[in-house]
């Protein structure tokens, strides 16, 4: 199984990226192959439907999404929504690259939780015909601390993240098995 993770902040040392790095470590501990895209390091030009000759960075993102069995999207919450960097990246994506794949939405917020950004992400996923995981992961301002091992300092947060990742992995495996049977 291969999972594509997209860190949707263009801020250095973003909490949402740290959270996604922890998710990455949980997936790798289960011997799951991971493609990690950090939009702070792999910047994309502003999407325009008038230009379909994509920049190499855009092609890299689209190939990683197409190659993955599942997708995890992480964003900071800005003004009740997802980051502009992640929205711009998702504007390049077509339904054929996401359709039928499990998608887990992850956020970090300056307030208690980033529920609005998660709701917006799940709406975008539905429009791309992806399958939203029944769980989502959000951490608020009180849980932004990570230890030297990359794990959240707050054990409750760490447990919630593990549960969300486990739910996502189970869904991704079920969908992959269903796709294999359908293709036989």
UniProtKB/TrEMBL annotation:
InterPro entries: Flavoprotein-like_sf, FMN_Rdtase-like_dom, NAD(P)H-dep_reductase. Residues 1-141 form the NADPH-dependent FMN reductase-like domain. Pfam families: FMN_red. Belongs to the azoreductase type 2 family. This is NAD(P)H-dependent oxidoreductase. The lineage of its organism: Bacteria, Bacillati, Bacillota, Bacilli, Bacillales.
